[in-house]
Amino acid sequence: MLRTEPRWVLLPENHPLADQESIDFADLLDEPFIALPTAAGAVRDFWLGNDARNGRHPKIGAEAATPEDKLEAVSSVSAFACSPRIMCRCTAGQV
């Protein structure tokens, strides 16, 4: 393993879980995810949390190839995305 990256969650401001300090991944399993394109392979699987799903397939609400596309999708399709911490900190209150 070269690197580990914790998953943080980008949610629309009006999402019922948006005001919580932390969110259990199990609470997100039935929510629509914003995913990287399928060509991203293992990176897509990581950000979809496939290792924590116990075989359950993610519900894909949209695909986004760039951070900008991901932020736009979070605000427009009422879905959420897992992202690196730095992206969540920089965008807090902007989505």
- Overall pLDDT: 82
Number of domains: 1
The global form is globular
Strand content: 15-25%
Please trace the helix and strand order, writing H or E for each element: EEHEHEH
Biggest sheet architecture = 2 strands, antiparallel
> How would you write the strand order of the largest sheet?
1-4
Overall SS class:
alpha+beta
Distance between the termini: 33 Å
Chart the SSEs and their pairings.
Blueprint: E1 8-10, E2 32-35, H1 42-48, E3 59-63, H2 67-76, E4 81-83, H3 85-91
Parallel strand pairs: 2-3
Antiparallel strand pairs: 1-4
Fold and architecture overview:
By secondary structure, the protein is an alpha+beta fold. The chain has one domain. The protein has three helices and four strands. The protein has helices at residues 42-48, 67-76, 85-91; strands at 8-10, 32-35, 59-63, 81-83. The strands form two sheets. It has a two-stranded antiparallel sheet. Strands 2-3 form a two-stranded parallel ribbon. Helix 1 (42-48) links the parallel strand 2 and strand 3. The longest helix is centred in the C-terminal third of the chain and has 10 residues, at 67-76. The chain is globular. Mean pLDDT is 82; it is low at 89-95.
Label this structure with key terms:
95 residues; two-stranded antiparallel sheet; alpha+beta; two-stranded parallel ribbon; 16% strand; 4 strands; 3 helices
Summarize the structure.
With 95 residues, the chain is an alpha+beta fold. It has 3 helices and 4 strands, in the order E-E-H-E-H-E-H. The longest helix is centred in the C-terminal third of the chain and has 10 residues, at 67-76.
